């Protein structure tokens, strides 16, 4: 890749301050697919300085100018969509068709939703004699993950640009090449110099600089709760805003009124999508205790029908997980589930027997899990489902909420009954009866799943400060 050994700083592709590279491993082959340059604190500081300089002018651009910029980015994203999908498929293992349509395609969707929100967003309005103003917060440090890389880049970059902020992006070093293409797209679309900057590197080096730097006004982080705590601690001395989307252990309550066979099958597929590497995955399936046997049988059959294989094979449903470390972590959880007495009804330890290389995990279903077992408490981030029984709906709600996380929850059953229960779940998003993803709905978590919200108008609010100018008599036009 042309720019993999350079960083995008102040509108230019520049050489790193130190010649240090990292091999990027193709998870389907366990072989290197290329290398990237690793940044240092010096590189991160150069990028922050560029963003700080650019903020003075970019923060003063008009809404109309920013709308046009976002539209140019959408055009370029769509033109290079398949290129993005192809590289994501190789670097993190997503099946090729899914990588193009969903992993890459979601980028343009976020920018389009941001345009819709921006066109009607009131940056200032009168409240009595006070002018209420929403102003860009400043320089944003962005730290993004490998599991849905373009999704998390786009849902941070789009609202930052829309509100007049400048930024430095540090993507995951596990799946970094898509971010290089994204930076090329920013350049092609004519993003002003210094507004968007890209520095590759690891969390302890580049990530820590972005979180702790006094010239970074906000850090927006997506990743594990453990890493999110470290980011918040690094940011605390400068009292900057910390915006986080962290882990999840989402419950999926299947009510007695549900079409049971369809609900269980859909729950399995949603849990195992992206090889289980989705923070909102419904990994805890709650079913009536008297139907545990039926649920286990349906789930096992659905898991067995999924095709695990190379991302390039059009028959593949699940590709590999993203890294050796991730594979080993998942295997340890599977072994722990067996040791703690959960009933293994599908999958199990090791890779599928027809594959002799790659970080492939067998789609695994445990039945008769209790909510105190490790596999029900901790985020596994792989294709592992825990089925938990409940007696009453009250007990189902209690089990669902008995988790340190609160990113998402799911309910399947009679619509009226599901709506009545949805408000009692402590989660940032509740999906009823297999509802489709909504790019304009607020996205974010309760409890240890993070703070703040992304997507649509909710993302715009996160990237602004609120100012009150007291004493205005008519309108908020500060130019007069």
Topology:
Layout: E1 7-9, E2 12-14, E3 21-26, E4 31-37, H1 41-58, H2 63-79, H3 81-92, H4 96-120, E5 124-127, E6 130-136, E7 139-143, H5 149-163, E8 166-170, H6 177-188, E9 196-198, H7 203-212, E10 218-222, H8 225-235, E11 241-245, E12 251-254, H9 260-272, E13 284-288, H10 292-305, H11 324-339, E14 343-346, E15 364-369, H12 374-377, E16 384-390, H13 393-401, E17 408-412, H14 415-422, E18 429-432, E19 450-451, H15 456-462, E20 464-470
Parallel strand pairs: 7-8, 7-10, 8-9, 10-11, 12-13, 12-17, 13-16, 15-16, 17-18
Antiparallel strand pairs: 1-2, 3-4, 5-6, 6-20, 11-19, 14-15
Helix pairs in contact: 1-7, 2-4, 2-5, 3-4, 3-6, 4-5, 4-15, 5-15, 7-8, 9-10
Counting H and I runs of at least 4 residues, what is the number of helices? Answer: 15
Terminus-to-terminus distance: 51 Å
User: In percent, how much strand structure appears in the residues?
Assistant: 15-25%
The low-pLDDT segments are: none
Class based on secondary structure composition and strand pairing: alpha/beta
Strand arrangement in the largest pleated sheet: 14-15-16-13-12-17-18
């Amino acid at each position: 890749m042309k720019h993999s050994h350079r960083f995008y700083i102040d509108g230019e592709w520049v050489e790193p301050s130190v010649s240090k590279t990292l091999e990027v491993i193709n998870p389907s082959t366990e072989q290197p697919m290329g290398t990237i340059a690793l940044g240092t604190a010096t590189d991160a500081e150069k990028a922050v300085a560029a963003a700080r300089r650019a903020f003075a002018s970019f923060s003063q651009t008009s809404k109309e100018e920013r709308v046009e910029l976002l539209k140019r980015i959408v055009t370029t994203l769509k033109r290079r969509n398949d290129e993005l999908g192809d590289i994501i498929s190789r670097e993190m293992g997503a099946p090729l068709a899914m990588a193009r349509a969903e992993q890459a395609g979601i980028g343009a969707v976020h920018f389009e939703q941001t345009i819709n929100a921006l066109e009607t967003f009131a940056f200032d309005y009168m409240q009595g004699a006070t002018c209420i103003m929403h102003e860009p917060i400043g320089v944003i440090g962005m730290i993004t993950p490998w599991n849905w890389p373009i999704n998390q880049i786009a849902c941070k970059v789009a609202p930052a640009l829309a509100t007049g902020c400048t930024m430095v992006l540090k993507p995951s070093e596990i799946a970094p090449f898509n971010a290089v293409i994204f930076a090329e797209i920013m350049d092609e679309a004519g993003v002003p110099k210094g507004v968007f900057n890209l520095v590759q590197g690891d969390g302890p080096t580049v990530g820590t600089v972005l979180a702790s730097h006094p010239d970074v006004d906000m850090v927006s982080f997506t990743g594990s709760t453990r890493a999110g705590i470290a980011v918040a601690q690094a940011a605390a001395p400068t009292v900057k805003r910390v915006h986080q989307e962290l882990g999840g252990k989402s419950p999926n309550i299947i009510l007695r009124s549900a079409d049971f066979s369809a609900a269980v099958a859909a729950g399995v597929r949603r849990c195992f999508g992206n090889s289980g590497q989705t923070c909102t995955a419904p990994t805890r399936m709650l079913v009536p205790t008297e139907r545990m046997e039926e649920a286990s049988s349906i789930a096992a059959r659905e898991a067995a029908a999924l095709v695990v294989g190379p991302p390039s094979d059009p028959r593949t449903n699940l590709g590999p997980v993203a890294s050796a470390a991730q594979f080993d972590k998942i295997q340890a959880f599977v072994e722990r589930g067996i040791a703690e007495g959960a009933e293994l009804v599908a999958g199990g330890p090791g890779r599928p027997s027809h594959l002799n290389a790659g970080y492939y995990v067998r789609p695994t279903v445990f039945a008769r899990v209790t909510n105190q077992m490790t596999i029900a408490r901790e985020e596994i981030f792989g294709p592992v489902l825990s089925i938990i029984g409940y007696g009453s709906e009250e007990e189902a709600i209690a089990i669902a909420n008995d988790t340190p996380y609160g990113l998402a929850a799911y309910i399947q059953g009679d619509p009226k009954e599901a709506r009545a229960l949805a408000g009692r779940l402590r989660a940032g998003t509740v999906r009823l009866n297999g509802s489709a993803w909504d790019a304009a709905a607020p996205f974010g978590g309760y409890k240890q799943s993070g703070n703040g919200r992304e997507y649509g108008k909710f993302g715009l609010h996160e990237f602004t400060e609120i100012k009150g100018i007291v004493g205005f008599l008519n309108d908020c036009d500060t130019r007069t």
